[in-house]
Write a structure and sequence with these properties.
Blueprint (H helix, E strand, L loop, with lengths): L4 H10 L4 E6 L4 H13 L2 E7 L1 H10 L8 E4 L3 H13 L5 E4 L4 H8 L14 E8 L4 E6 L9 H17 L6 E5 L10 H14 L7 E6 L1 H5 L1 H6 L12 E3 L3 H13 L5 E6 L5 E2 L7 H14 L2
Amino acid sequence: MFTDFHCALTWLKDKHIIKKAAVAAAHDIDVLTSVVSARREGILDAVLIGDAGKIRSYLEQLGEKTDQWEIVDEQNEVQAARHTAVLVAEKKVDMPMKGLLQTSTFLKALLDKSLGLIAENGLISQITVFHYPQASRLMLVTDCAINVAPDYSKKLKIMQNAVSLCHKLGIDKPKVAVIAPLELVNPDIQATSDAAMLTLANMRGQIKNCIVDGPLGFDNAVSLAAARHKGIESKVAGYADILLMPDLGAGNILDKSLRYFAGYQTAGVVAGGKVPIIATSRSDSAENKLNSIVLSVLQSL
């Protein structure tokens, strides 16, 4: 089991695993810093699509020789996203990476049905992975950026995407906490009903390869002391690997709180497609973008 991002990076290097990404709107210093770092670590090669002048300028600032990089001059972000998606569909690269452009523009290109990058009945979802230093382990929060108000069926697919990523991280039977405002089922709060149904489906063997419990409040999902104080007996409470959020608003706020309040290292990936999708926030640090590359390379295996 990988306990942090550096551990995962070291494993990839030891296995001599290298993948190739197409970066849409690559003219951003933090994006290029992460891509250059990944290339120097020997885990990634890349096609850089965007404002060629800015890309070359930033590469030079980073001490790179620009003639050693594949650069495509495309200053229109819609066309840059389209070019990226086509390269992935034609299997000329292994995965797409979002640069300095809107997430909606980036994903719209990838979701074009004619390219076949998403399974017919599939659902893509965003997963934020963070290093939880107090427990020396990685944890997942989902969905923080794509599915706005998922119903039961979508939450099931979002959960399955996160469970699959956990397996890549070496967590054989991840514990899933289905988060809600309170621990009791309240018909007026749909998140509690969804959580109870997911838990029951898991108990009956309809959801496999994980342990699910909910509804759980955020406090007792992550704190064993809080769970015990409330008299909650659970294999998940205090030990959660995955925090399945009730909606995008809650997930997005928690995602940003982990970075800006707690200062945790994070990675943002998109799961559920036929290939990993590196889709970090434009405000993410170069370090967090590198973490996202590491996990996406791992996810592709």
